[in-house]
Design brief:
The complex is a heterodimer of chains A (about 270) and B (about 160). Chain A has about 270 residues and is an alpha+beta fold. Chain A is built from four helices and twelve strands. The chains are: A alpha+beta (about 270), B mainly alpha (about 160).
Chain lengths: ~270, ~160
């Protein structure tokens, strides 16, 4: 019996394809993200291998450090965190004498996740990691690199999640700079840096100052280092304000795994 | 059109694009393998096949992109237009192929950007630098990848076009 062949005109085919495209475009991201997560999950192995090869090739192209950069970043960030936590605790002890203070991450659940893919291309700065809802991860949780905040969870699937890095152009995170007791919003610039604006030039900011993420109850109970100030200049539009450029406190593109902080493991955060 | 071979080729391209492409990246400028495949299939396939191939390549590009939809639409439109254009103007010589890759890269990228912004994603000030850089880089390398792609797809590249 001859097989019946469906004949579709080019115009109809084009309309169907465009319709399918617009359905994808107009569908909620919660639904369309599933396609991306399923793809990342199915091909996590070859993509991880490819990423490892890519990292090792790029590492050979870079000049050799005198000491391990990873170790240096890790210890430097740990030192900054401890100093900041000590200072914060000191302030609280002064303010609330007699009240016991719990450790910054005491009781928190730390979920270690492997990086499946990283996108640091100047347009987007994000990671896809191999932990998701099944591991207790939800949107908004803070993600650590080497003892430093590198971003927050922006989308989750059952076994994968997307991390929006602090350098992503859509990232906005409350921070404080060095010893200044002023909250400001740090916005990602997309080029592996972030910017802090709206800070009066009467405040003294120096290159090399540490930038800390502000504590965010339920997500981050203590300030943690995000990065360092690498440039501080007057805003071109308003010279009475600083325009501060910040780089992450670790080389995010070299991270193979990250840690997600679940502050209150018993109560899911939405 | 050998669709099974097409699927494998697109899958390999997307996996390389998502992981290994950094090896040959020039700072933030990366080779766009899917753009090169889009132009290849639009030039060397029948119009209907080119439409479906463009849709599939756009879908693959969106799988590793920020949101689903923009590249499906832009790739389908420009893949189809290119397939029709190839019936009128021969795009056989490598300089012409390079020019087409660069043009399609900029136009499809701009359309994808507009659709991405419509979906609520932010637009970056340095986007066009990256887009133009990526398109030019792909235009230089692209025609050299046509030959292995044609061998894999069992397509004879010397013919003018298929109708």
């Amino acid at each position: 019996m001859a097989r019946k062949q469906i004949q579709v005109s080019r115009r109809i085919l084009f309309i169907w394809l465009m319709l399918a495209g617009f359905i994808f475009l107009l569908s909620p991201r919660k639904i369309t993200n599933k396609f991306q997560f399923v793809f990342a999950r199915i091909f996590s192995r070859p993509m991880s291998v490819g990423r490892s090869i890519s990292l090792s090739v790029r590492a050979r192209q870079l000049p050799i450090d005198v000491v391990s950069r990873w170790e240096y970043d890790k210890l430097q960030n740990h030192l900054s965190n401890v100093l900041e936590q000590r200072e914060e605790i000191r302030r609280k002890i002064e303010k609330l004498s007699g009240v016991r203070e719990r450790g910054s991450l005491k009781g928190a659940k730390i979920v270690i996740a492997d990086v499946i893919t990283s996108t640091l291309n100047g347009v987007r700065n994000e990671l896809i990691i191999n932990r998701g809802k099944d591991d207790g991860i939800s949107v908004g949780l803070y993600v650590l690199g080497i003892n430093n905040v590198i971003g927050t969870i922006s989308a989750v699937d059952s076994r994968t999640s997307r991390v929006r890095l602090v350098t992503d152009s859509s990232s906005k995170i409350a921070v404080k700079i060095g010893d200044l007791e002023i909250d400001r919003v740090m916005e990602g610039a997309g080029d592996n840096t972030a910017k802090i604006k709206m800070l009066s030039t009467k405040h003294r900011v120096r290159v090399g100052d540490s930038v800390y993420s502000r504590k965010n109850p339920g997500f981050l109970d203590s300030a943690m280092i995000i990065g360092k100030v690498i440039e501080c200049r007057r805003d071109e539009e308003n010279p009475s304000l600083w325009e501060i450029t910040v780089v992450p406190a670790c080389e995010i593109e070299k991270l193979n795994d990250v840690a997600v902080i679940i502050m209150n493991p018993g109560s899911p955060v939405e | 059109m050998r669709w099974f071979r097409f699927g494998i080729l697109v899958l390999v391209a997307i996996l390389i694009q998502a992981s290994l492409i950094d090896v040959i990246a020039l700072t933030t400028i990366k080779l766009d393998l899917l753009l090169i495949l889009l132009v290849f299939f639009s030039i060397y396939c029948e119009i209907k096949e080119a439409m479906i191939a463009s849709f599939c390549i756009g879908f693959a590009a969106d799988l590793i992109g920020p949101v689903m939809g923009p590249q499906i639409i832009s790739f389908t439109i420009f893949g189809t237009l290119l397939a029709y254009l190839h019936r009128i103007i021969s795009i056989r010589r490598m300089p012409y192929q390079s020019l087409v890759i660069a043009l399609v890269g900029v136009l499809a990228g701009t359309m994808a950007l507009v659709l991405t912004v419509l979906k609520g994603e932010p637009m970056l000030p340095n986007f066009y630098t990256i887009l133009i850089g990526t398109s030019l880089y792909s235009a230089i390398v692209g025609p050299f990848l046509f030959l292995p792609s044609a061998w894999w797809m069992r397509i004879k590249t010397h013919r003018f076009s298929q109708h």
